[in-house]
Amino acid sequence: RREMYRIDFIPLEKSPSGDSSCKPWYQVNEQVNKKISLFSGDITKLEIDAIANAANKTLLGSGGVDGAIHRGAGPLLRKECGTLNGCETGEAKITGAYGLPAKLVVGGGGGGGGGRALRNCYYNCLHTPTKNHLRTVAFPCISTGVYGYPPDQAVEVALRTVREYLEQNHEKLDRVIFCAFLKSDKELYETMLPAYFPQG
Ligand code: ADP
Under 8 Å CB-to-CB from 190, ≥6 apart: which residues? Predict the structure, then answer.
């Protein structure tokens, strides 16, 4: 039997946390805020439409979350990825999820290009699934593992890009889940989420 987790809804606070890294102060937008979740744990256990992968340019699997996704999906994922001509930094490519409970995997090339590339990676990891009528997407904390991007900056890019995408496209998505594998990342999201998704 597959192991699965409930997605917890985080209690978002009304006011910004006071942390200087939470500078941008967004308006309350119910349609956007109600679609955000924080999940702490293993992204490969989520039974949703699409999980984003912190893939490398070859899409052929390595360590970290990519390794976990390929282990869970099985060899057919590697086989399909081998037909896709890789994935440039900032782009996203969609594949089956095979042995995973998610319907599809969206592989994003996040590393190697700084904040702009990471922004494009998040944007395309939302845009590609929505073009394919997928309505729930989960993200690991892309670029903060092997690639070594500073987690606070990576979380800021993640939250800002998702907020901006949902502002324009909230009717196309039911839920965007930030998946924190490390306790320190969970704490970062908890600190920074209220500034990007303030509650009314
Ligand atoms: P990158 O090259 O983008 O840094 P990594 O896979 O090394 O890729 O790390 C990206 C993030 O994925 C890190 O925050 C790491 O803690 C997290 N991570 C690793 N394994 C998992 C997993 N099974 N589920 C969710 N997140 C994971």
Answer: 10, 38
pTM for the model stands at 0.89
User: Residues near ligand 1 with C-beta < 6 Å?
Assistant: 42-44, 54, 64-66, 68, 110-111, 140-147, 179, 181-182, 185
Tokens 């729930």, located at residue: 136
* First-residue to last-residue Cα distance in the chain: 40
- Best mutation site among 66, 181, 182, 188 for ligand 1 pocket (most ligand atoms within 8 Å of CB): 181
| pLDDT tens profile 42-92 | 999 999 999 999 988 888 878 899 999 999 999 999 999 999 999 888 889
- Contact status, residue 195 vs residue 22, Cβ threshold 8 Å: yes
d(CA 15, CA 173): 25
- Residue 118 Cα to ligand 1 midpoint, Å, equals 14
